[in-house]
Amino acid sequence: MAEIVIVRDKAEAGALVADEIAGLIRADPEAVLGLATGSTPLPVYEALRPRLQGVDVSRVRGFALDEYVGIDPAHPESYRSVITREVVEPLGLDPSRIRTPDGSPEGIEHHGDEYEAAIVEAGGIDLQILGIGTDGHIGFNEPGSSFASITRVKTLTEQTRRDNARFFDSIEDVPMHCITQGLGTILRARHLVLLAFGEGKAAAVAGAVEGPVTASLPGSAIQLHPHATVVVDEAAASHLTRAGYYRYAYANKPDWQGL
Ligand code: GLP
């Protein structure tokens, strides 16, 4: 099962995950990071900044999970822009080594395969950061997504478009389609780190961690991964039935294990 780490707040989560990522980059300057958008990973990116001072990040590679189809890449809410603003610029990464799926409609039917090939060519993703949608989606793999899926175009659910309308002027402006790494792609990353904060994520977290493994809750795919870590605050952990055990296991974790 995934390791569940229940933390006090976002800052503690950010520090914990940033320590792991900074250690990874120090050990391997060519580390390949799987980057997530949304509000959830922001504390990780913030905490990474001081930890990467003086560290050579010039060869770090990164692959974003997803992108909207048909959005102008220069739009402030395109995931290309978000990753540039929140990750690439503040951390001083080389933009040419950080990719987002290509959401331009022209040739879209090939963009998924091209993205998969680029990930393989980079040697695979070492650590994949994940948030989770209120409907249990990871990346933009909406309920029903195949566990074997690879990067491809998906239609967003109404719920996801409503959730993401806060980034746009209105729900009508939220694109209908996206291109996202598949659950199969995500499961090939060597370490998954899923973060979630707040009561609104509690049901999705409980389903992903303790519910049946089902395509109806795509986040439950993490139960199939040999090295998955779930970092949640008290509110996001509030529907977990075995929280006591997770705290006990983490408190008694052997030092050599790391995150
Ligand atoms: C979006 C992204 C997901 C993200 C989710 C949750 O739909 N495609 O990768 O995990 O929203 O967003 P937030 O972290 O803002 O709650």
TrEMBL record:
HAMAP family documented for this protein: GlcN6P_deamin
* InterPro entries, sorted: Glc/Gal-6P_isomerase, Glucosamine6P_isomerase, Glucosamine6P_isomerase_CS, NagB/RpiA_transferase-like
Name of protein: Glucosamine-6-phosphate deaminase
Q: In what way is its activity controlled?
A: Allosterically activated by N-acetylglucosamine 6-phosphate (GlcNAc6P).
Which reaction does this chain catalyze?
alpha-D-glucosamine 6-phosphate + H2O = beta-D-fructose 6-phosphate + NH4(+)
* Annotated positions for site Part of the allosteric site: S145, R152, K154, T155
Regions crossing the membrane? none
- Name the active site residues: D66 (proton acceptor), D135 (for ring-opening step), H137 (proton acceptor), E142 (for ring-opening step)
Q: What class of enzyme is it?
A: hydrolase
Q: What are the EC numbers? A: 3.5.99.6
- Function description: Catalyzes the reversible isomerization-deamination of glucosamine 6-phosphate (GlcN6P) to form fructose 6-phosphate (Fru6P) and ammonium ion.
Any idea which UniProt keywords this protein has? Allosteric enzyme, Carbohydrate metabolism, Hydrolase
Q: Where is the Glucosamine/galactosamine-6-phosphate isomerase domain?
A: 12-224
Q: Which family does it belong to?
A: Belongs to the glucosamine/galactosamine-6-phosphate isomerase family. NagB subfamily.
| Natural source organism | Microbacterium salsuginis
Q: Which gene encodes it?
A: nagB
Look up the record and name the pathway of this protein: Amino-sugar metabolism; N-acetylneuraminate degradation; D-fructose 6-phosphate from N-acetylneuraminate: step 5/5
UniProt xrefs under Gene3D superfamilies: 3.40.50.1360
